[in-house]
Amino acid sequence: MGSRARSGRGGAAALFVLRKSGLEVMVGIPNELLAIMASSMKAADKWVEKNVSNYLNKGCNVRYVAVGNEPFLSTYNGSFLLTTFPALKNIQSALVKAGLGNQIKVTVPQNADVYDTATGKPSDGDFRTDIHDRILEIVKFLSDTGGVFTVNIYPFISLYIDPNFPAEYAFFDGRSQPVVDGSATYTNMFDANHDTLIWALKKNGYGNLPIVIGEIGWPTDGDMNANAQLAQRFNQGFMTHIATGQGTPMRPGPIDAYLFSLIDEDDKSIQPGNFERHWGIYTYDGIPKYQLNFGVPNSQIKRASGVKYLDKKWCVLKPTVSLDDPKLPDTVSYACARADCTSLGYRTSCGMLDTRSNISYAYNSFYQKNDQDDVACGFSGYATTTGQDPSTGTCRFGIMIEVDSAYSWKPRRVRSNYLLVLLLALVHLCVSSS
Ligand SMILES: *[C@@H]1O[C@H](CO)[C@@H](O)[C@H](O)[C@H]1NC(C)=O
Ligand SMILES: *[C@@H]1O[C@H](CO)[C@@H](O)[C@H](O)[C@H]1NC(C)=O
Ligand SMILES: *[C@@H]1O[C@H](CO)[C@@H](O)[C@H](O)[C@H]1NC(C)=O
Questions:
Q1: Mutate to test the pocket of ligand 1, among 27, 47, 49 (most ligand atoms within 8 A of CB)
Q2: Is 336 found in the same domain as 287?
Q3: What is the SS3 assignment for 36-52?
Q4: Which ligand is in closest contact with the Cα of 417?
Q5: How would you classify the pairing of strands 184-186 and 211-216?
Q6: What is the pLDDT averaged over residues 87-115?
Q7: What is the DSSP-derived secondary structure letter of residue 322?
Q8: Are residues 119 and 245 in the same domain?
Q9: Number of structural domains in the chain
Q10: Among the residues of 130-210, which ranges form H helices?
């Protein structure tokens, strides 16, 4: 559930910096373009020319084209059900025409909600009945053309939507009640979920189709189970697990995976939940939230250098304003709707603030998002700027970073996107070569 949809903006800049880096890149076609790719071979040709051939010629190591992003997610109500396969076929034809048929593989990243097991045992896995035939035509095509099945697996979201989900099962420490399935024993959800997919494929005659984990990760804020400790525990557990190279009970061997994500994205939709803007291993300004050992020497996660901040100024509630003022709630709603209040909920990083600081947090978020424009610290005269950092404990009152210095690090302009791709590629590289 809950697509970690990636914005297409910033993609060109991303590919530009990836030139000659040697990092492997997966470029993606947004769901909104599936209909046109499906109905027009010309559009598919043009897309490949502009977004693949063009960057290959500039030295970018494009390896995959992702056609859509979780197009069969159940919350999309089948909106992309009829266009995904025809789009996939047209893109594959376009790649062949461009002479890239052997070099670049196509795939359709799916959410793990496309398969299910009624009993909880992986061996009872199969594809969801409403999409069964549609997904099999894709699977057959991927199998025939040497493509891969890409799946995004999120134990965090299982824990988020199901209060009875056994928390330990989300992690890799073997502390949960095991699920026994024939001769296989599962102590973590990742392995069980992965093998549910293998069984679904096997049952339909495609048990050997290669699988790529397109996204996996853990957020650090916006929910009581989202914090740096748990994110580190999950991501490190996962890295260590796949570094052993032992794979899962149903598919021993190396696992190909992309960590989600490099950096927080403050413009992301929070429709799936308040955690959505907090998947980053880095904060919006390039500070690592925790360390990860990638199993390669000297692979420390370093702080981004050269980040330039705006002035040390914050926007806060004037001490003279009464909390009983009836107009106060509207100013907070205004700020929260346009900026970011996802760190103010129960047991989040700023969840312990008192009401005054809570309001200040909302005001400041809006002020920084508007590049410290004086007009953005008005709020009917209830707000004022201060040079004193209101940050306290785990709660950080941010300062926006400069646009020009931060070609790489300006989240508002969605520059973050290219670094995201960079880390994904980097992690992919480490994981694949280990
Ligand atoms: C290249 O990809 C972007 C993002 O998907 C898209 O907006 C653009 O239309 C594509 N270019 C062509 C020529 O199809
Ligand atoms: C899907 O259908 C449900 C129920 O009919 C509706 O509430 C929801 O808005 C629909 N979502 C989309 C993306 O069409
Ligand atoms: C803090 O702000 C959030 C978002 O506006 C709100 O949901 C929460 O109830 C507030 N908490 C306090 C203690 O004022």
A1: 47
A2: no
A3: HHHHCHHHHHHHHHHHH
A4: 1
A5: unpaired
A6: 97
A7: -
A8: yes
A9: 2
A10: 132-145, 155-161, 189-203
Question: Are residues 377 and 246 both part of a single domain?
Answer: no
pLDDT band at 19, cuts 50/70/90?
confident
Do 329 and 187 share a domain, yes or no?
no
As a whole number of angstroms, the distance between CA 185 and CA 64 comes to 33
Looking at residue 195, which CATH number applies to its domain?
3.20.20.80
Residues 261 and 358 in one domain: no
pTM as predicted? 0.89
Would 179 be classed as within a structural domain? yes
C-alpha span between 283 and 416 (Å, rounded): 10
Residue 358 CA to ligand 3 centre (angstroms): 6
Statement to judge: residues 346 and 201 lie in one domain: no
Q: Are residues 265 and 358 in the same domain?
A: no
Q: Tell me which residue of 232, 364, 340 sits closest to 276, measured CA to CA.
A: 340
- For residue 361, give the CATH number of its domain: 1.20.58.1040
Which residues are CB-contacts of 336 (< 8 A; sequence separation ≥ 6)? 344, 362, 365
Q: Report the alpha-carbon distance of residue 89 to residue 326 in Å, rounded.
A: 58
CB-ligand 3 contact for 339 (6 Å cutoff) = no
242 within a domain of the structure (yes/no): yes
pLDDT of 299 reads: 78
- Residue to mutate, 3, 75, 80, ligand 2, most ligand atoms under 8 Å from C-beta: 75
Q: What is the pLDDT of residues 2-16, one digit of tens each?
A: 345 444 445 677 777
Rounded CA-CA distance 315/335 in Å is 11
pLDDT per residue over 191-201, tens digit each?
999 999 999 99
Q: What is the mean pLDDT of residues 119-134?
A: 97
Helix axes 84-97, 132-145, angle to 10 degrees: 10
Amino acid at 392: T
Q: Quote the CA–CA distance of 372 and 322 in Å, as a whole number.
A: 25
SS3 state of residue 60: coil
- When comparing pLDDT for 3 and 224, which is higher? 224
* Residue 282 dihedral angles phi and psi, to the nearest 5°: -110, 150
Residue 407, both tokens? 């070609």
Residue 132 lies in a domain: yes
| b/e per residue 28-62 (b: at least 16 CB within 10 A) | bbebebbbbbbeebebbbebbeebbbebbeeebbb
Q: Which residue has the tokens 């799946």?
A: 151
Ligand 2 centroid distance, CA of 75 (Å): 7
Q: Find how far residue 272's CA is from the centre of its chain.
A: 12
* 351: containing domain: 314-386
CA–CA dist 183, 249 (Å, integer):
9
Residue 334 CB–ligand 3 contact under 6 Å: no
CA of 260 to the centre of ligand 2 (A): 27
